[in-house]
Specification:
This protein has 3 domains: 204 residues, Rossmann fold (3-Layer(aba) Sandwich), CATH 3.40.50; 73 residues, Orthogonal Bundle (Helicase, Ruva Protein, domain 3); 92 residues, Arc Repressor Mutant, subunit A, CATH 1.10.10. Helix content is 55%, strand content 13%. It is built from 17 helices and 12 strands. A hairpin with a 7-residue loop joins strand 11 and strand 12. The longest helix is centred in the last third of the chain and has 19 residues. Bound molecules: adenosine-5'-diphosphate (ADP) and magnesium ion. The site of adenosine-5'-diphosphate has 23 residues, from helix 2 and helix 11.
Length: 397
């Protein structure tokens, strides 16, 4: 069977056609989008761990805003930015990009014309680079600047949905928190109608950081939490994705892929993709799924584990211990039980290793099973550790 393109998208946001689950969150965000469209400014915090699907949710949200609610959807990636000026620049630039094929594009951008360039193949992207002085003024007067844009599009669009994706560095100091609070206050006091929904996305830790800087800020946000998908949702996703490629999946293969996905979108995409490429006859059987899980475990280890953990897992100091934990491929273990299987030397470094694995998010406390109980945060990590430990075992013996 000749294969050209995998339906899976590891490493990039999923398209609306293969978007899995999140029905309740989509219903909720739809309500807020509609309220914003009627003139009430809304603020949303999209919260979830890395890889859970924040960026994917954000892009589906923007698409819905555009297709169903007559609002402009603007997805702004904040990666690498840490200054309000840069944030402002990117927001305005992405608004321009979102509307550049509309007949009224020139009308809304005329005052910025000197700072706008068409870049890329056939001038398909707008790049916006005002002088830094103007930019810092725009950042300070963000509510007015955005308000003016909203006024200019009011005849054609209901408003705008802006996602500030991955607030990361902005949560580290109080500058952003204060700025955001003042934007919201300014809008509330000076604009009778302000049809804009602004959503931030970040991990729970980032939200806590923001709250520490500006406790009153949290009250302005509606919280949308993204958690693991259910096994049914993952099953449905695999069915649709392989279906798209005209492939069928046996029950055992499905169970295996679903189990190792652990409800995590990032894992399900990696496993699906590796399995897709392992198969050779268009029928996904248990052997294909096994090969897919193994291959994806190696990819996941290299791509998602922090380099320091990656090194730990290969260090001679730890590798015999890792073999002992990973050998059983149990997804949960207790400190006591592992200790009982370790040599004296291994015992001395085990707590250190455990601490490092916890810090890196590889294992977490399993509170339901009491003190001293731990579990891997997903089912793929122990597979990866097992593969690594087999290799180091083989290399060292
Ligand atoms: N609802 C979903 N359905 C299918 N795949 C998803 C879904 N959400 C995320 N993914 C996939 O999971 C991976 C991580 O998603 P992403 O949106 O980048 O997460 P985050 O922004 O939270 O780190 C990507 O490969 C993406 O395609
Ligand atoms: Mg993201």
């Amino acid at each position: 069977m000749q294969k050209d393109m995998s339906p899976f998208t590891p490493g990039s946001p999923v398209g609306i056609d293969l978007f899995a689950g999140r029905e309740q969150q989509l219903m909720e965000i739809t309500r807020y989008i509609r309220q914003a469209g009627s003139g009430r400014q809304e603020n949303v915090f999209l919260i979830g761990d890395r890889g859970i699907g924040k960026s994917s949710f954000a892009s589906v949200m923007c698409e819905l805003a555009d297709r169903r609610h007559g609002m402009i959807g603007v997805h702004v990636h904040l990666g690498g930015a840490a200054a309000l000026e840069e944030l402002t620049r990117r927001v305005l630039q992405e608004v321009m990009n979102a509307v550049q094929d509309r007949p009224w594009y020139a009308r809304i951008t005329e005052r910025y014309t000197p700072y706008i360039q068409q870049v890329g193949l056939m001038g398909i992207k707008v790049s916006f680079h005002p002088p830094s002085q103007d930019l810092s003024q725009m950042a300070q007067q963000f509510p007015q600047v955005l308000g003016e844009l909203l006024a200019r599009i009011a005849n054609d669009q209901k408003g705008v949905v802006i996602v500030l994706d991955d607030i990361n560095g902005f949560a580290e100091t109080n500058t952003f928190a204060r700025w955001y609070k003042s934007v919201v206050d300014e809008v509330a006091t000076h604009f009778p109608a302000y049809p804009a929904l602004i959503a931030l996305s970040g991990t729970p830790e980032r939200r806590d950081q923001l709250a520490r800087h500006e406790p009153s800020l949290l009250r302005v946000f509606r919280l949308i939490e993204l958690e693991r998908l259910s096994d049914d949702e993952v099953t449905d996703f695999f069915q649709r994705a392989f279906g798209q490629a005209d492939m069928s999946v046996s029950d055992e293969a499905m169970n295996m892929m679903v189990h190792f996905s652990s409800g995590l979108p990032v894992m399900m995409q990696e496993i699906g993709d590796a399995t897709f490429w392992s198969d050779s006859d268009g029928i996904i059987g248990l052997d294909d799924a096994q090969a897919g899980v193994t291959d994806s475990a190696i990819t996941v280890g290299r791509k998602y584990l922090e380099p320091s953990v990656f090194r730990d897992l290969r260090s001679p100091r730890y590798h015999t211990i890792i073999r002992k934990i990973a050998d059983s491929i149990a997804s949960t273990f207790t400190r006591k039980e592992v200790m009982s299987r370790l040599t004296h030397d291994e015992q001395r470094v085990f707590d250190n290793l455990l601490r490092r694995l916890r810090k890196a998010g590889v294992v977490e406390q399993d509170r339901e099973r009491g003190r001293g109980a731990y579990r891997f945060t997903n089912q793929i990590y122990p597979v990866y550790m097992w593969i690594e430990s087999q290799q180091s075992h083989w290399l060292n013996n």
